[in-house]
Specification:
Length: 463
């Protein structure tokens, strides 16, 4: 196929293998080609504007108007030193960024290992946790506990942590020794259950799993402060403090996967700070450089790194050629400067309640079942029967509703959001806008979502 005689859409469909993209997008369906962005909006090649209600994929914290400024920092670094490793040497951007992250991270989390993605970050955390226990003389601590439906990545170790069954099942057997506990979804818990009772139920389940497995076989618990998959699942009061206490009592590390919640999405630099708990390891990616370049990593407690350095390998036994790439670190330093200058965290903290209040309007739409979330991460779960909190698939399969009604309505309205069928079979709409969105922009976003849902209800005949 010649590049001169085909459209970009044809080129992409013919040659580009895309991430988690259904076959229809390569064949009959329209494949959007985005060509530019400004503020919270992106534009496709036909000139149609969309509000990016997903911030790329939970990651363009600054939206689309700071690429030139970050690009200048990138260009300066390219001119000075386009590449060097962080293998037995260092360079200014990696050293400065590691120190900046130590400053932002809670407690004694002062040591940073860089990667280029969220999956690589969780992979690095798995190895760090295992090596820490080996170095302490407890090599049999190999198991990990994660939560149902949670997503932690696609590389084999990170994929093994996933509680999201459909992304892992066909690749099994994976890394052994991963167990899952309930996530914090509250929507279908018994009506009379108090928040305290829900917290107690979750903590009892975690502790009984630890005891059943044998505490001295468990290396770490890994959880997102707010779980993305399943739809913006917030922790009930006292939950993370309880998880921390169980981990401490049994010598288990607590890893916070902050690939989404890191760098302001909940209004603090880290979601663990926002919810008031102290992890031993934080994994991050996405927002650190507003996804303008690929960068991720692990921030670990001093005692973990010191133990590993004093252990049998005499080093952290892991490496990535691009870990701490100088250009990526320079971009991240510029991103953090701009986030501070614009008080992006202050904006999220101040606008979060407006976002929640605006979303409440959607309850007037008959299929809106649950609205939940925190900060700039919100989800709307759709049902056909509010009293039963269920979707009647015999009336209209939820996948058909999402593909044939909801997704086209979102395109028509000009809004990008995550539209999926969740693990319980219900349509789910997720919003995670750029963190620079002010109250007016949030109002615009919710208005577009309202149009989307109203059109989808009308076209599907659901009332
Ligand atoms: C919580 C979480 N962890 C890990 C990952 C994997 O990150 P990446 O796609 O950069 O490998 C993701 C990706 O969305 C994520 O949401």
């Amino acid at each position: 196929m010649s590049a001169h005689t085909t459209t970009l859409e044809e080129l992409a469909k013919r040659h580009l293998v895309m991430n988690f993209t259904p076959a229809a997008k390569y064949r009959e369906a329209n494949l959007p080609i985005f060509v530019r962005g400004e503020g919270c909006h992106v534009e496709d090649e036909a000139g149609k504007r969309y509000f990016d209600g997903l911030a790329g994929l939970f990651c363009t914290q600054l939206g689309y108007s700071h690429g030139t400024e970050i690009g200048e920092a990138i260009a300066r670094q390219m001119g000075e030193l386009p590449f060097q490793t962080t293998w037995s040497s260092a360079h200014p951007p990696a050293a400065k960024l590691a120190a900046a992250l130590a400053e932002l991270a809670p407690g004694e989390l002062n040591r940073v290992f860089f990667t280029s993605s969220g999956s690589e970050s969780n992979e690095a955390a798995i190895k760090l946790a295992r090596q820490y226990h080996i170095s302490r003389g407890e090599p049999e601590r190999r198991k990990f506990i994660a939560r149902r439906v949670a997503y932690h990545g696609t590389s084999f170790g990170a994929m093994s942590l996933n509680g999201m069954v459909q992304v892992r099942k066909m690749f099994e057997p994976l890394m052994s020794g991963v167990r899952h506990v309930s996530n914090t979804k509250r929507y279908r818990r018994p009506d009379q259950e108090t928040e305290a009772a829900f917290t107690a139920f979750l903590l009892d389940e975690l502790e009984s799993l630890v005891l059943q497995e044998g505490p001295d076989t468990v290396a770490a618990v890994i959880m997102e402060p707010l779980q993305n998959a399943g739809g913006s699942l917030t922790p009930p009061a006292g939950y993370f403090q309880g998880v921390r206490e169980i981990c401490d009592r049994h010598g288990i590390l607590l890893i916070a996967d902050e690939v989404i919640t890191g760098f302001g999405r909940l209004g603090a630099w880290f979601g663990s700070t926002h919810y008031g708990f102290q992890p031993d390891i934080i994994t991050f990616a996405k927002g650190i450089a507003s996804a303008h370049v690929p960068l991720g990593g692990v921030i670990a407690d001093d005692r973990i790194i010191e133990t590993v350095l004093d252990g049998p390998a005499g080093m952290y036994n892991h490496a990535l050629t691009y870990g701490g790439h100088p250009v990526a670190c320079a971009a991240a330093l510029a991103n953090l400067d701009i986030m501070r200058r614009l008080d992006v965290l202050g904006n999220v903290a101040a606008t979060s309640s407006t976002f929640a209040a605006e979303l409440e309007r959607l309850r007037a739409i008959p299929i809106v079942g649950d609205i939940r979330g925190d900060g700039f991460h919100r989800s709307v779960e759709l049902v056909t029967d509010r009293a039963a909190k269920s979707w009647a698939a015999d009336r209209l399969p939820s996948a058909e509703f999402v593909d044939q009604h909801l997704a086209p309505a979102a395109v028509e309205a000009g809004v990008l959001c995550r539209l999926a069928v969740d693990s319980e079979g219900n349509p789910l709409l997720q919003l995670s806008p750029p963190l620079v969105a002010d109250g007016a922009a949030i109002g615009e976003l919710v208005g577009l979502v309202e149009q989307t849902l109203t059109r989808a209800v009308a076209s599907s005949g659901l009332r």
